[in-house]
C-alpha cells in the first residue's frame, strides 16, 4: 500500500519526494528515520528572557553572565531551525567569564545545564596535562561528557519505562516466591505481593559483583581494551553470588537489574548519547587562568601548561574524538571557561585560544548588599536552609533583619581584610 502511494506521488518535486520516502519508510518499518531534529534534543528551549528569569531564582546579580549563556542557549535552538546545509557552518560562541571566586560563575553554568537537561561537565584546567606528561589528557573531557550523556538517556529511559520495570521486578519476585513454595497459587501470591503482605518474606536472588556500566567505567579509568572489558564483565557474570534477603531489600537490587536489562536492550544508546553530546553538550572549564603565562614568566602550573592550551584548541575549535570506538565531533559543544586572573589577564592566554572564546564577560564583584541578597533572595537561600534544618528537630529559628545585616557585614569585612572568597564566605559564618 505504501509502495502504491509512493508511486502515485513520484511526479512531485525532488525535495518533497525525500519527505514522502521517509514517511513511507516510517509507516512500513514502524521506526523513525534518524534525522538531525531528533526527539533526543530539547525543542522547548526557553527564550533568553525566560532563561534569565529562571536564573534569577538561584543566582543574585551577574546579569551580563546570565544574558550571555541565555543567548548561547537560544542560539542552539535557532540553529536547529536553519536549513541543513547551513547548520554545520553555525558554530557556538564560546564564553570566557572573568571574575574572582565565589561570584556565581559555576552556578550560572550549572543551572543552565539543569534547565535544559543537557550533558554538563565541570572540569579544572589544572587537572590536565599536555600529551606526553603524566596526568589526564584533554580528550578525557569528551569521554566524561559522553558518560554524562549516557546517564541522562538512561534516566529518561528509566522514567519512560517505569511500568515495565515494575512489572519485571514483580515477576521476578513472584517467580522466586513460587519457587520457594511460600504460597500456593500465583494469583493469590500476586494479590499478597501487591498488598504489601510479603515484604518481610525472604527470597534468594542472584547478585552480580559488577555491572556492565561499572566495567565500562573501568575501561575508561584504567585504559582497558574493549576485549579486556568484556572478559571482565563475563567473569563477573560467571561469579554470581546467591543472597537471601527480605523482599523489600531484594526489590531494590532487582530494580537495578531490571533497569540494566532494559538499557542493555537499547543497541543505539551510545550513538544516541553521542548525538546528544554533540548537539547539546556543555563543558565548563574552571581555573583557565592557572594555565596562562604572564609577561614576567609567572607560572602557576608546570611546564605542560602551555601544552594544555594547545591541546584544548582543537577540542574547543572542533575536532573528532574517539570514545568507545565511536567518533564524537566537538564542533557544536558549548564551552564556558572561567578564571579569576589575579596574577594574569585574559590576553596572557594563547591568541588562538582567546579567539576560540569570543564572548568575554566580566563578573560583577560582590559588595555588602550583594551578600545580603544572597542570604535572602535565592529560592533555597542559606537563611531558609538553616531554618528548615532546625525545624526537623522541632526548633523554630528566626533571623531578624539586623542579624542578616550583621552576617553580610562580617562576610564583606573578612573578604576585604583576609582573603576574598566571595559568597562562599557566608558558609563560614
Quaternary form? single chain
Helix segment tally: 18
Ends apart, CA distance between termini: 74 Å
Q: Helix and strand succession?
A: HHHHHEHEHHHEHHEHHEHEEEHEHHH
What is the mean predicted local confidence, pLDDT? Answer: 77
DSSP strand content: 5-15%
CA gyration radius, whole angstroms: 27 Å
* Main pleated sheet: 5 strands, parallel
Largest sheet, spatial ordering of strands: 2-5-8-1-9
**Strand-pairing-aware structural class:** alpha/beta
Low-confidence stretches: 1-39, 297-302
Number of strands: 9
Notable traits:
429 residues; globular; 10% strand; disordered N terminus; 5-stranded parallel beta sheet
Description:
There is one protein chain. 52% of the residues lie in helices and 10% in strands. The chain is built from 18 helices and 9 strands. The chain is globular and about 75 Å long. Residues 1-39 and 297-302 have low confidence and may be disordered.
What secondary-structure arrangement, pairings included, does this model have?
Blueprint: H1 2-8, H2 14-29, H3 48-56, H4 63-80, H5 84-87, E1 95-98, H6 105-116, E2 120-124, H7 139-160, H8 162-180, H9 186-194, E3 202-207, H10 212-221, H11 226-238, E4 241-246, H12 247-264, H13 269-280, E5 282-286, H14 305-317, E6 320-323, E7 326-329, E8 334-339, H15 351-356, E9 359-362, H16 368-376, H17 382-391, H18 401-417
Parallel strand pairs: 1-8, 1-9, 2-5, 5-8
Antiparallel strand pairs: 3-4, 6-7
Helix pairs in contact: 1-2, 3-4, 4-6, 7-13, 8-9, 8-12, 10-11, 16-18
Amino acid at each position: 500500500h505504501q509502495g502504491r502511494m509512493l508511486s502515485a506521488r513520484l511526479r512531485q518535486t525532488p525535495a518533497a519526494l525525500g519527505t514522502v520516502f521517509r514517511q513511507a519508510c516510517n509507516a512500513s518499518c514502524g521506526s523513525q528515520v534518524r534525522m538531525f531534529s531528533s526527539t533526543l534534543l530539547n525543542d522547548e528551549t526557553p527564550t533568553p528572557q525566560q532563561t534569565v528569569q529562571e536564573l534569577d531564582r538561584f543566582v543574585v546579580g551577574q546579569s551580563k553572565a546570565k544574558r550571555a549563556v541565555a543567548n548561547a542557549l537560544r542560539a542552539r535552538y535557532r540553529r536547529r531551525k536553519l536549513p541543513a546545509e547551513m547548520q554545520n557552518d553555525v558554530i557556538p560562541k564560546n564564553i570566557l567569564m572573568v571574575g574572582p571566586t565565589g561570584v556565581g560563575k559555576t552556578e550560572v553554568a550549572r543551572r543552565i545545564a539543569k534547565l535544559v537537561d543537557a550533558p554538563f561537565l565541570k572540569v579544572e584546567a589544572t587537572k590536565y596535562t599536555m600529551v606526553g606528561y603524566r596526568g589526564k589528557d584533554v580528550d578525557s573531557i569528551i569521554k566524561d561528557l559522553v558518560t554524562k550523556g549516557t546517564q541522562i538517556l538512561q534516566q529518561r529511559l528509566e522514567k519512560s519505562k517505569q511500568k515495565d520495570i515494575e512489572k519485571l521486578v514483580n515477576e521476578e519476585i513472584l517467580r522466586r516466591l513460587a519457587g520457594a513454595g511460600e504460597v500456593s497459587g500465583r494469583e493469590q501470591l500476586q494479590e499478597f505481593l501487591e498488598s504489601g503482605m510479603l515484604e518481610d518474606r525472604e527470597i534468594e536472588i542472584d547478585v552480580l559483583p559488577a555491572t556492565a556500566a561499572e566495567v565500562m567505567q573501568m575501561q575508561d579509568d584504567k585504559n582497558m581494551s574493549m576485549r579486556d572489558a568484556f572478559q571482565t564483565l563475563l567473569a563477573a557474570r560467571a561469579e554470581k553470588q546467591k543472597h537471601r534477603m527480605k523482599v523489600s531489600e531484594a526489590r531494590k537490587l532487582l530494580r537495578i537489574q531490571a533497569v540494566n536489562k532494559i538499557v542493555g536492550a537499547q543497541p543505539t544508546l551510545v550513538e544516541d548519547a553521542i548525538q546528544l553530546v554533540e548537539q547539546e553538550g556543555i563543558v565548563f572549564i574552571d581555573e583557565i587562568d592557572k594555565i596562562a603565562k604572564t609577561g614576567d614568566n609567572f607560572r602557576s602550573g608546570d611546564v605542560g601548561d602551555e601544552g594544555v592550551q594547545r591541546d584544548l584548541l582543537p577540542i574547543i575549535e572542533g575536532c573528532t574524538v574517539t570514545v568507545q570506538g565511536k567518533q564524537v565531533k566537538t564542533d557544536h559543544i558549548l564551552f564556558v571557561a572561567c578564571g579569576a586572573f589575579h596574577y594574569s589577564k585574559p590576553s596572557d592566554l594563547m591568541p588562538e585560544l582567546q579567539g576560540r572564546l569570543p564572548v568575554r564577560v566580566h563578573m560583577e564583584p560582590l559588595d555588602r548588599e550583594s551578600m545580603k541578597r544572597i542570604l535572602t533572595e535565592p529560592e533555597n537561600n542559606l537563611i531558609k536552609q538553616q531554618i528548615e534544618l532546625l525545624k526537623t528537630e522541632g526548633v523554630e529559628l528566626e533571623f531578624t533583619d539586623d542579624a542578616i545585616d550583621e552576617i553580610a557585614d562580617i562576610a564583606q569585612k573578612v573578604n576585604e581584610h583576609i582573603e576574598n572568597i566571595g559568597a562562599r564566605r557566608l558558609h563560614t559564618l
